Amino acid sequence: MAAKNRPETNKPVKRIFAKTEPSNPASKKPKLAGSKPSEVSQSKDFKKPFNPDKRKQKPFKSELQKTDGNKEKNQSLTKRELRLRAKELAEARKKKRKRHYDLELELASLWEKMRQRNIAKETRSKLISEALQKMKGKIPEIAGSHVSSRVLQTCVKYCSQAERDAVFEELQPHFLSLADNTYAVHLVKKMLDNASKKQLAGFISALHGHVASLLRHMVGSVVVEHAYQLGNATQKQELLVELYSTELQLFKNLVSIKESRLVDVISKLGLQKASVLRHMASVIQPILEKGIIDHSIIHRVLMEYLSMADKSSAADIIQQLSGPLLVRMIHTRDGSKIGMLCVKHGSAK
User: Fold this and answer.
1) C-alpha closest to that of 228 among 168, 165, 301, 139
2) What confidence score (pLDDT) does residue 225 get?
3) Total domain count for the chain?
4) Neighbour-count burial of 61, counting CB atoms closer than 10 A to its CB (0-12 exposed, 13-18 middle, 19+ buried)
5) Residue 97: helix, strand or coil by DSSP?
6) Domain span at 328
7) Within a domain: residue 75?
8) What is the pLDDT of residues 294-321, one digit of tens each?
9) pLDDT in the model for residue 59
């Protein structure tokens, strides 16, 4: 009786079910009073979750479905078109691999003939011209191949100057990508050996901004060292000065200076000594950690750094060099000076 005298506000809220007969007599579940019969009857739509961003999730299909036909038909056509496109791409890759394999076989057969010692010069020149004609337009791809790059090296070695210039022009836009390739590095070195002064200057200018990254690479450092050995004093300074400061690495017009010593470069350009030493340390440390220490350009950079660094910074470099690395450096002039500095300023240990 006390429960009947309670006010209406304290009564618990109960769900009121509509007394409508279900559409399916087998189902005994009651329907909610607030539900619409149209929403409940559409069981298929009720089971599928509503996804308003469906078109945003698959934009590639929406672009292909811009036709006047039915949507389901467009979807089936789109899937078919995608399957056909994938099949065409796979067939194109397969044909490309087959053509490359056939070309390698042809070049290998020509190479076995042209590299013989007892062959006549005229016969060799004809074989080289035939091989270069087959490789025309595909030289950058062939230069990085394990088999075909050997054929190209032999062609560059024995071909005429006009044919060599044509190969250089085709390879020129791809020198940076080929400089750190294990198989193409030998071809790049051979091209630099036979390059003219103009071609060598163009190659060294193409290295601008990439000298530090190539010196940290086991293969790329060989190319930079080869260009450093072939260049004149001005070109050597262009490669060196880029390792001294970030400004010199970014701006190409600041690199062309005649001063050979780092102290003179800092005084002329008004650079901060601390920032220069910090940048040089960031360049030198990865090179020493990887053990790339056999090149004369690295010896020159180390010598310039030790001539300006304070005792603590110089002691860190000397500690890293003391041991097997120092033995590999003393074959050059700057390397022998670094060895004497290590003996002079190093500790007894």
Assistant:
1) 301
2) 93
3) 2
4) middle
5) helix
6) 201-348
7) no
8) 899 999 999 888 888 888 888 888 888 8
9) 46
What single DSSP character describes residue 17? B
Q: Are residues 189 and 222 in the same domain?
A: no
Is 174 a member of any domain? yes
Residue 54's pLDDT is what?
Answer: 47
**Which of 99-103, 200-204, 240-244, 328-332 is predicted most confidently?**
200-204
Q: Helix (H) and strand (E) counts for the chain?
A: 22, 0
Residues 252 and 169 in one domain: no
Residues 179 and 258 in one domain: no
Question: Taking the CB of residue 249, how many other CB atoms lie within 10 A of it?
Answer: 20
Dist CA 81 CA 75 (whole Å): 10
Distance CA(223)–CA(215), nearest Å, equals 9
Quick check: helix, strand or coil at residue 74?
helix
Angle between helices 185-193 and 161-171 (to 10 degrees): 130
- pTM exceeding the 0.70 threshold for the entire prediction: no
Q: Are residues 240 and 288 in the same domain?
A: yes
Instruction: At 190, list the tokens.
Output: 């051979």
CA dihedral sign, ordered 286, 233, 222, 214: positive
Q: Tell me if 286 is assigned to some domain.
A: yes
32 beta partners: 17
Coil, strand or helix at 32: strand
Which residue is it, tokens 């929406």? 62
Query: Residue 204 in contact with residue 236, Cβ under 8 Å?
Result: no
Instruction: Please say if the pLDDT value at position 234 is more than 90.
Output: no
